[in-house]
Input
Amino acid sequence: KQEVTQIPAALSVPEGENLVLNCSFTDSAIYNLQWFRQDPGKGLTSLLLIQSSQREQTSGRLNASLDKSSGRSTLYIAASQPGDSATYLCAVSWDSNYQLIWGAGTKLIIKP
Amino acid sequence: DTAVSQTPKYLVTQMGNDKSIKCEQNLGHDTMYWYKQDSKKFLKIMFSYNNKELIINETVPNRFSPKSPDKAHLNLHINSLELGDSAVYFCASAAGGPGTGELFFGEGSRLTVL
Output
């Protein structure tokens, strides 16, 4: 059964710290993996998309890595800011139909 | 300058009614999707359209009918609404064919059936 797990469920850190969010998945034969953030009452904002052939993607202070053999992806946030506070979701697709399997998310709070 | 916009954002209606949720994307994407967010906050795909053609039709009741007048629009029509249809529905789009490209989501439409 294809599943996606995100740990921790919640994380609170002081502003300025670097942090890592984890996403693990069963079945290494993924098609792609995407990280999103969701702000309360709002939609999903795409952060980074990693295709199965890629090892990492970077956008600004964000870096996402993919290790298919161990079934893991990490989202690294450098120099965290209060505006980074949101729920971060990992979604994995195992086929081209974009039937996404979602993790439950990590709620991140950055304390000023 | 919203990329993917859904209307209405909130919809409250009685059981048995028929309602529609509209979705428009101005990104020039070829593929559009409808997802339903379940009670555990997971998003499950309902439909996918590529250039106005239905690609995916997951196991949803046939009371749900998507309509794509052009590739920039994918509307969701629901007949004979039931209590269990209450949920947040998300529209999304992506460049390229199904399963390719980065997904861009709308802000969601919260449907409440009384």
